[in-house]
Amino acid sequence: QSALTQPASVSGSPGQSITISCTGTSSDVGGYNYVSWYQQHPGKAPKLMIYDVSNRPSGVSNRFSGSKSGNTASLTISGLQAEDEADYYCSSYTSSSTLHVFGTGTKVTVL
Amino acid sequence: EVQLVESGGGLVKPGGSLRLSCAASGFTFSSYSMNWVRQAPGKGLEWVSSISSSSSYIYYADSVKGRFTISRDNAKNSLYLQMNSLRAEDTAVYYCARTAGYCSSTSCYEFHAFDIWGQGTMVTVSS
C-alpha cells in the first residue's frame, strides 16, 4: 500500500486561503468517505482536524474545511494565521489488508 | 482529562525485541478501538497496527506483519505493542492513538480517524 500523495509544501500570507491536496486511488480516497486530516507542530503529537472528509471535531476552528472529488481529497485553511504553520497529513481507510494509509505530508508556511 | 501515555521505548540492537505500553485514562477504554502509528525521524506518519475494542479484529501494516503483535488489557486500560526481529528501519517515535467514535446507550459507532494521541515513545534500533 503506497502512501497518499500530498504536495511537499504550501505557503500563504496571513489572511489568505490555502488548499492542500491528497491523491489516492479508488481503493482508498476515491472509494470511501473516510478521509481525515491531521495537524502536527514540531515535536508534538498529531491533532485531528477533519474526519469523514468534511467533519470537524469539537474545538477545531471553522477556518479548516475538507472536501473530496474522485480520488483526491482537499483541506482548505481560510484566514491563514501564524499558528497554522505546521505539517499536515491526510489519511484514508483502505480496502487493502493494511486498513489505514497516511499521506506523504505537507509543510504549511505562513509568509 | 482524556489521556494516553506511552512507555517502553529505548535503544535496541537489530534483531532484538521491545514491548511498548500505552496507558489510557479519562475515557472508557474498553469501548474504543486503538492503534499504533509511528514516525521515523524527519519523516511522515505511518500506520502500524489496529485492534478492536474486544480484540476480535487486529490489523497490521505489511512492513511489520509477522514481527509485531498488538494486544490490549481492558481491565488495566492498557494497549501494548510487542516488537520482535527489530530492524534499523523500525527506528521511529511510536504513538498510540484512539479511534474516534461515540457510544449511545445501546451501541457504539466508530469513525476511521484517530482523535486522541499520546506524546509518543522513541524506539531506536542500532548496533
Helical proportion of chain B?
under 10%
Tell me about the largest β-sheet of chain A: 6 strands, mixed
- N- and C-termini, Cα separation of chain A: 35 Å
Order of helix and strand elements from N to C terminus of chain B: EEEEEEEEEEE
Category by helix and strand content of chain A = mainly beta
Strand content of chain B: over 45%
Order of helices and strands of chain A: EEEEEEEEE
Q: Spans of chain A of 5+ residues with little confidence (pLDDT < 50)?
A: none
DSSP strand (E) fraction of chain A?
35-45%
Low-confidence stretches of chain B: none
What's the count of strands of chain B? 11
Shape of chain A: globular
* Strand segment count of chain A: 9
Distance between the termini of chain B: 39 Å
What does this molecule look like?
Chain A contains no helices and 9 strands. By secondary structure, chain A is an all-beta fold. In chain A, the strands form 2 sheets. In chain A, strands 1, 3, 4, 7, 8 and 9 form a 6-stranded mixed sheet that branches. Chain A has a 3-stranded antiparallel sheet with strand order 2-6-5, with no helix packed on it. The radius of gyration of chain A is 13 Å and the shape is globular. In chain B, β5 and β6 (58-60) form a beta hairpin. In chain B, 0% of the residues lie in helices and 56% in strands. In chain B, strands 2, 4, 5, 6, 9, 10 and 11 form a 7-stranded mixed sheet that branches. The mean pLDDT of chain B is 96. Chain B is elongated, with a radius of gyration of 14 Å. Chain B contains no helices and 11 strands. By secondary structure, chain B is mainly β. Chain A binds chain B through residues 1, 3, 32, 34, 36, 38, 40, 45-48, 51-52, 57, 89, 91-93, 97-105, and chain B through 35, 37, 44-47, 50, 59-62, 95, 97, 100, 111-115, 117-120.
